[in-house]
Amino acid sequence: MRELTYYVAVSLDGYIAGPDGQFDAFLAEGDHMAPIWARYGGTAPTRLAEAVGLPLDDSPFDTVLMGWNTYAVGLPDLPSPYEHLRQVVFTRSHEGPAGSEAVTFTDADPVETVRALKQEDGKGIWLCGGGSLAAALAGEIDRLALKINPVVLGAGVPLFGGRGYAPRQWKRADVQAFGSGVLLAEYARA
């Protein structure tokens, strides 16, 4: 069965973006980049990866899931950000823009959708954001891969937004520390 991995950059205080969706405080350069790409290749937007010469064919994922706000970060320039992956965007009130024909927009129940995807053949499923979608899918997430950045945002989009108090245990799978201050912390569902 396929696994759902929530792979995302996060601040020390648990935010995946600023209050208006900003993510420029996260480190985009440093000694963490190459090792993390070696582990999680194929997780950059297609055009960006091609422009900087990053290979896209050795990804642990063949499907990417995101909420509308995560998807909309690249608009209008990237209506199909991950052309090399099957793209699913969960939204209740938006339709796809021109050029987004390779993206599936759905208002279906995220849990039912993920359960169906897990039954299909293929590689892993990547949840790249946002926090509210992660909260809705918390019971379906098999692995957490957190790029913990050495920054405190103070406010923004929480890692699991709107979840409320609902403790869940995870077991550490691996932790890598880099000179840049970034930690790649990986956890499996306990």
From TrEMBL:
<dbReference type="Pfam" id="PF01872">
    <property type="entry name" value="RibD_C"/>
</dbReference>
<dbReference type="GO" id="GO:0008703">
    <property type="term" value="F:5-amino-6-(5-phosphoribosylamino)uracil reductase activity"/>
</dbReference>
<feature type="domain" description="Bacterial bifunctional deaminase-reductase C-terminal">
    <location>
        <begin position="4"/>
        <end position="184"/>
    </location>
</feature>
<dbReference type="GO" id="GO:0009231">
    <property type="term" value="P:riboflavin biosynthetic process"/>
</dbReference>
<dbReference type="InterPro" id="IPR024072">
    <property type="entry name" value="DHFR-like_dom_sf"/>
</dbReference>
<dbReference type="InterPro" id="IPR050765">
    <property type="entry name" value="Riboflavin_Biosynth_HTPR"/>
</dbReference>
<dbReference type="InterPro" id="IPR002734">
    <property type="entry name" value="RibDG_C"/>
</dbReference>
<protein>
    <recommendedName>
        <fullName>Bacterial bifunctional deaminase-reductase C-terminal domain-containing protein</fullName>
    </recommendedName>
</protein>
